[in-house]
User: What shape does this take?
Amino acid sequence: MAKQRIVTPAGASFTVGSSDYSLEMEALANMDAEIIEAPMDTAGFIAAAATADAIYAKGIPITAEIIAALKNCKVISLGSVGVDSVDVKAATAAGIPVTNVPDTFIEEVADHAMTLLLSTFRRVIEQDRMVREHRWKEGRPALLKIPRLMGQTLGFVSFGRVARAVARRAAPFGLRMIAYDPFLDETQIAEHGVMPATLNEVMSQSDFVSMHAPARPECTHLLKEQHFRQMKKSAIFINTGRGPTVDENALIKALSEGWFAYAGLDVLEVEPPSHNNPILSMDNVILSAHTASASARFDEARKRRVGSELALVLSGKWPMSCVNPSVLQNTALARWQPVGLGRGPNS
Assistant: This one.
C-alpha cells in the first residue's frame, strides 16, 4: 500500500472516456502515492475516504457530511473551474484547502462567449433556417433591422479571467466595454480598457450583457427579474458562467415577453434541462450544452493540473490555486512561490 492515499469517487466527470489516472499520476510519479476509486454513495465513500491524505473531487458532491468524516485530509482537488460541487465553507472550517483549475480553460470559454455574442447578434441560426426553408429573400430584410456592431456596449457581470479574455477579443470589434465586479478595485478593471460600472449601469447601458459570475452561494440568482427589466429591448444576454447565477424563471419571462431581444446560453439552472423547459422552444435563444470549456486539450490539461496540485500539497507545499486561501497559513504547508499569485474561484 502506498504511503499517501488519494481517494476519488469511481464515476468520471467531464471526460471523454474512462481514466487510468496516468495523466494525474505524472506529477505524483516520484512520490509514494496512489489514487484509489471509492463508491459513489455517501456511506461507501466515507468508509473509503475517512483516512485518506487527499480527495480528488469528481462525480459526486463533496458534502459537509463527507468533509466532517475526513480525519487526515490535506487537500480536496477539483479538475474544474467551478467549485460548487464541494462544500467550501465546511472545508474551510475543517482547515482543508480546496483547489481548482481557474486558468486552464480560459481561452476556450472566452472563444465560446464571443461565438455566442456574434451568432446571436447576426441571428445566425435564423439566417441558416431561412436558407434551408427556401426563404432566401427574407434574410437581408431581417438584418437591416440590426445595427452594426462597432460602437455598441458590452457589459460584464463579474470580471475574472474569462471576462478579461473576452474583453481582449471584443476590443478589435470596436465595442465600448463596462464591467461590474464588487471584488475588484477600479484600476484592475480599467487597466483592461474596460470602464468600472455598477450592476444597474451594466444592465441598463449594455447592448450585450455577458455573465461570468462563479457558482457560489452569494451569487445564486444574482440576476433577477428586476435586472432583466432594466435591459434595452434590443439587448442580448450571454451566459458562459453558471446557470444558477441567473433566476431562470425570470429569464424565461423576459425572453418570452420581449424585455430584451436575444440570448446565447451555454449554461442553465438545471442541467440537462427537462424536456418541457420553455427555453428549448424559443426562437430567440441559441443554446450549447455547457461545452464552452471543451477542446482537444480539455482532459489532458485539467488532469495534469489536478495531479500537480495534489503533488504540491502532499509534498508539503502550498497549492497553486486555492479557493479558500485563508486556511493555508494555519496548515503545515510551506509557501514556496517566488511571486504573489492571485487565489480564489475567479482570480
In short: The domain at 4-104+295-330 is CATH 3.40.50.720 (Rossmann fold). Residues 343-347 have pLDDT under 50 and may be disordered. The longest helix spans residues 298-314. The chain has two domains: 4-104+295-330, 106-287.
